[in-house]
Amino acid sequence: MDINNAFLHGDLNEEVYMVLPPGFQTEKLNQVCKLTRSLYGLKQASRQWNAKLTATLLQVGFKQSSADPSLFTRGTGTEFIALLVYVDDILMASSKLSLIQELKDLMHAAFKIKDLGVFGYFLGMEATISSSGLNLCQRKYALEILEDAGFLHCKPVRTPMTPGVLLTHTDGIPLSDPSSYRRLIGRLLYLTATRLDITFVVHHLSQFVSTPTDKHMIAAHRILRYIKGSPGQGVFYPTNNKLKLQAFSDSDWASCSETRRSVTGFCAFLGTSLISWCSKKQATVSKSSSEAEYRALAMTTCELQWLNSLLQDMQVTTTEPIIIFCDSKSAMAIAENHVFHERTKHIEIDCHVVRERIVQGLINCYLCPRLTK
Description:
The protein has 373 residues and is an alpha+beta fold. The chain has 3 domains: 116 residues, no CATH class; 93 residues, no CATH class; 127 residues, Nucleotidyltransferase, domain 5, CATH 3.30.420. The protein has 9 helices and 17 strands. The strands form 5 sheets. It has a 5-stranded mixed sheet with strand order 15-14-13-16-17. Strands 4-5-6-7 form a 4-stranded antiparallel sheet, covered by helices on one side. The longest helix is centred in the C-terminal third of the chain and has 25 residues.
């Protein structure tokens, strides 16, 4: 559902004055308006609307998630209902339609809502619900990107990036108008919400938004040609699925030729459903491949810890340790060894969250053998 004029519902907790609108006649000169409610354009408007919505939901028994403040839940078992908020767009889920209708009536009485019906399109994401599961994609959004860039009728390619090519800031000639590149990369970043196959290359190209060149733009155009081959590709979540977390962690040691930093990559599954993925350059330089793998393992552990907290808010309890598959024996040895030695004493303390979670029984590390050609 959508809230009508959401920002107008916020109550101001401070004195805010506004210049009179053009054409408004008054007896005295230099008069101003004192606002008692928020208006669109005020810096306080979004915060005050969020506070008003949160207070309303808490009053009717909802609990705000500590892992994700935009998630609200209420009830248990068959009486469970979840509500996800993005500014004034709201998504509700429950096994009982009566609970959803009751909440809609309550929200309409408080704010005046627009009922958009069954989940089909939300924030650029298209959903197809069937007895076998839920399919999410961004086909309409992808086609809009192709149309705006003039690639709607281009020839598709099979890979989003030329294999073995890693760009630098000095490659090519700087663009005379970098705004088109920045806009394209920004739109592609949102497309990675359902397209993990372009995550690495999009994040790689996002490093050059400050000073893009013609070679960077050519690489971005290759992504568009790749998307043209399958604009409706997305992720599928089957109905019959085990609610068990597991993840795969990896790193590419010193792959950045300019900074010599490594790249962390991980993907997390709930049963057989892919629910989280990441490709990100590490914040510091790793002295060895073992250290790079261990940093990737620490980042994966933090993500799993957050996902576990989110599942608990959704009343999904995990009794067994979460499994992380890693292809580095040395990184696993660092995680399981409680004695600091010369090779590990320089690593920041926050990386050793892996050890702590293994001791607590939250995660277990298993060796994932490397694939050989």
